[in-house]
Amino acid sequence: MTIRTMRKTVFLALAAAVLTSGQQARPRGAVRASAGYAMQYLDEPWRPAAGGSVRFNVTRRFGVEPEFVIAPGPRFSQWTLIPNIVYDLRDPGRNAAPYIIGGAGYFSELDKSISYKRSEPAWSAGFGVRVRLAGGMFVSPEFRLGSITRAAVGAGYQF
What does the DSSP assignment read for 82-116? Predict the structure, then answer.
């Protein structure tokens, strides 16, 4: 290896180290379980709902988060499957990071009293705050409007 090639190699290595030293590693994603209440129509009561999701980060603040939620009831049983898009409004490395979330997917409902099932497209959009706890754990209260209005609190792990 010539002196000139060695200088170029050292220069490129130092330049790469300087340029990347200020960048924070972005979180790769998160898993979350949520529980709360959901309502489809304004004349219906709120009913318990629970779900789970996995977030895959595309950039430090932007991610894709497919989610499955079920809202069982004595007469109606509902579930949704929605691939959400999530954008963190603040740096997700902070202790509290507000975010907006929304997506479109699939909704299914079973009326147990008459054995009637219907399925249709679904959508939701809303906001929440991810509050960091120790060791990658977090809690995230959120509220969404859409095909099913939902208020929930999630708990999860960011990796």
Answer: EEEEEEESS-TTSSEEEEEEEEEEEEEEEETTTTE
| Cβ atoms 64, 104 nearer than 8 A | no
Q: What is the pLDDT of residues 78-131, one digit of tens each?
A: 999 999 999 999 988 889 999 999 999 999 999 999 999 999 999 999 999 999
Bridge partners, residue 64, by sequence: 56, 85
> Cβ–Cβ contacts within 10 Å for residue 29, how many?
16
Residue with tokens 């609190």: 153
Tokens 């069982």 correspond to 72
Q: Supply 51's token pair.
A: 């779900």
